[in-house]
Structure formats: C-alpha cells, structure tokens
Amino acid sequence: MNKIEISTEFIKLDAFLKWSGIASLGSEAKIYIQEGLIKVNGDICLQRGKKLKVGDIVEFENEKYEIV
Left, alpha or beta for 50 (phi > 0: left; psi -120 to 50: alpha)? Predict the structure, then answer.
C-alpha cells in the first residue's frame, strides 16, 4: 500500500489524485471520478469535493493509497 502524507486536516479527492500522482491534471482527476474509477474506503466515490482525512484509503486500478 502506498502511503501519502498530507499536512492539512483534510484534502479534497480531486486534489488528492493530483497530489499522489494518480492524475497529472485536474481534468484527468475529474474524469476518473465521474467514471466511477475511484474508491474511497471500499466504496465508489463520485464526489470530486469529498474530504479525505488521515486513515482514509483511496483505490485506483488495484492500487491502494493510504492517507497519513
């Protein structure tokens, strides 16, 4: 599992996808989310603005990313 460190209380899902390197552009992150390719804590998430906190796990293409 990849561990991604954030320095704030939370990070929005679309920003997290760019921060972690999953998406290189915001528009790319938006497409991934809209197409249901992103899971947060095991559930498909369609909310670009979903607030992620320490301990949340994001999944994309069978890779897991834990927020620490």
Answer: beta
